Amino acid sequence: MTRRQKAESLAALAFLAPNVAGFLVFTLLPVLGAFLLAFTNWDLFRPPRWVGLFNFVSLLGWHYDEYAGRTVMNDPFFWKYVYNTVFLMTAIPVGIAGSLICALLMNQKLRGITVFRTIYFLPTVCSGVAILILWKWLYNNDIGLFNTLIRQFGDWIGVPLQGPNWLGSTEWAKPSLMLMGLWTGLGGFNMILYLAALQGVPREQYEAAAMDGASAWQTFWAVTWPGISPTTFFILIMSVIGGFQGGFMTANVMTEGGPAGSTTTIEYYIYNVAFTRFLMGYASAIAWVLFLVILAITLLTWRFGGRKVTYV
Amino acid sequence: MSDRTRSVRKTALWKAALTYLVLGLGAVTMLVPFYWMVLTSLQPPEMAFSMGQIRWIPERIVWQNYPEAWKAIDIPRLYWNSIVVAVLGTLGQVLTSSLAAFAFARLEFPGRDRLFFAYLATMMVPGSVTMIPNFVLLRWLGWIDTYQALIIPGMFSAYGTFLLRQFFMGLPTELEDAAKIDGSSYAGIWARVTLPLSRPALATLTTFTFMGFWGAYMWPLIIVQSPELRTLPIGLASFVGRYSAEYSLWMAASVIALIPVLLLFIFNQRYFQEGIKMSGIKG
User: Fold this and answer.
1) For residue A259, cis peptide bond before it (omega within 30 degrees of 0)
2) Cβ separation A196–B95 shorter than 8 A
3) Is A126 in Cβ contact with B261 (below 8 Å)?
4) In angstroms, how far apart are the furthest CA atoms of chain A?
5) What pLDDT, on the 0 to 100 scale, is given for residue B26?
6) What is the Cα gyration radius of chain A?
7) What predicted TM-score, i.e. pTM, was given to this entire model?
8) What is the DSSP string of B171-194?
9) Of A122, A134, A235, the CB nearest to B254
10) pLDDT, mean over chain A
11) Which residue of B34, B137, B276 is in closest CB contact with A192?
12) Separation CA A175–CA A232 (nearest Å)
């Protein structure tokens, strides 16, 4: 290494130091800490006790239940919440398709289109506790906007109609949250990403398609869709990663995970295990399992999806 | 005008009309909940219950919910906490990110790309993994119920570093080379050349980070116990817990909470959209 190179490396060290230090203390150290905690039993007050793989067996294992006469999971709640989390994630493809349709509509040279873009982006900007409180009010069973509209529509056509008890029923709670999520996210990040991607598809390809006499439908599948596939892939991976970690704020503010645990997600479960039941070791084990699942899914999608994606 | 151009024009007109119709319906769907929020907030509390018949234009408007909500949850205190946390946290994050990004984009050092890749990989770590050890760490430091607990752990972001690095890489090097010839240090180049040229990227990161701190929910909920240190989202949520059916008050408080976000959005709209594009395309 020359003196110049050495000086440059030293400068780099100085530039990196604040961020790397913070990263070591608040990310790397905690990740390792959580890994160690996952093998302990700890209530924050008495010293932690090493329990080996006990937490993982409690979480993922099963046993024969003599009463029921069948094999049951050691922690059936966890599997229920995994189901809830995955159920909520089925809204992801619908949301992606919706965002793409919005982007296609807005990707035209029409007057006033930026006004629409702003309006569609509003729910995303405002998303947070205030919006959740608003939707809790909209979903009110007796006097919320939705059920009032349904009742009025019933009066109008002369049939008594009663809307579902949105957040209050086990069948409707998850779809209600999904509907709210679609409203919040439709014109948000994904739509802006798609708009940028659509503008990046080479014009010549559209001209060639027009020359060949392709219909709008054919052009979409032959030119647009392959052209934006890297963006679709990016959005899908990010949504899946986000989906596995989602549902804390909605559960905490709107439903308390209920009714009957039907809106409790893995994330909300981890929080409750850690901070209302004070099982720090068990919560860390769940968090690490979640981490590994996210890691595996990301790598798998990368392996298989990455190849199919067309890079223009 | 030939028949052909006329028919082409006609189709274009139909297409535009249909686009406006669909987008218009969508826009109404996006706006109605907001309108309902403001409308409810302007009704006397007892009216919220008699809304069985929807009146889109209210018969009368009352403002009393706003001062009442303002008093009930100590809005000035919540605002102050949120502002302190969001402003300091954002400053810290933009500063550390821009320093690190400069090293990754402009300096040569052994292991640079490997370290950068490790940074990217940490974006996959779920918040719930680091949450418990961070809580334990801050408890050990005696930071529970302090501003620094709300600010400092959120100041180091791989995302911000990534975003700025991508932008720095795209900047022309001529100005930096000129500064180097003039004998400027790396710190001088960073401060006087790179940062001034990167205003759009910095504005974008600032906007996003600010929004992130402003809306943060889980971490403040864990780390703050006394009401004096609550941020706006926490105060708002606990308010809804205490006043379980005061819908007019809920909505007034929500409107009050949304105003700064809306202002930020209106004045920075460009940076929102640019930022999203930057994070997606070049990634």
Assistant:
1) yes
2) no
3) yes
4) 88
5) 93
6) 25
7) 0.88
8) S-SHHHHHHHHTT--HHHHIIIII
9) A134
10) 89
11) B276
12) 24
